[in-house]
Amino acid sequence: MSWEKWLDTSLYPDEEPPADMDSLPARVDFLARLCAAWDFGILPDPETVAEVRQPHWREAVDACRLLTSPAYHLLRAWHGLPPLPYLGQQLAYIRDDPNLKHV
Fold first, then answer.
1. pTM of the predicted model over 0.85
2. Is the dihedral of CA 24, 80, 90, 11 positive or negative?
3. What's the rounded Cα separation, in Å, for the pair 100 and 13?
């Protein structure tokens, strides 16, 4: 699938979208932008999710290390990468909820 079909150009309000997604830095930057938007409640298109779940994204997911992002930790799990510590905000009313283990 061509990257133009799944690339959300709205994730680049500060600069032009990359010309391609072949380099590791371009992929890591894209993942950081994607996860930040996702964490903010802007859901990615299904085509974008399908793309970043592909095995060739595994190296970029591992390199991204956006440890404050719940979406990033989901991407790590999808790629079978070892869990890393979550450094984001943990709300007490959620963290201490005994039903959380059932979610």
1. no
2. positive
3. 36
- Which amino acid, residue 54? Q
CA distance 97 to 18: 43
Q: What's the pLDDT tens digit per position in 73-103?
A: 999 999 999 999 888 776 665 667 777 666 5
- For residue 34, give Cα distances in angstroms to 31, 73, 96: 5, 13, 29
DSSP state letter for 85 = -
Q: Is residue 95 a contact partner of residue 103, using CB atoms and an 8 Å limit? A: no
How many other β-carbons are positioned within 10 Å of the β-carbon of residue 53?
13
Q: Whose CA is closest to 79, among 37, 36, 41, 27?
A: 27
The tens digit of pLDDT for each residue in 34-53 reads 999 999 889 999 999 999 99
Q: Return the ∠ at Cα 3 (arms to 47 and 44), rounded to 5°.
A: 35
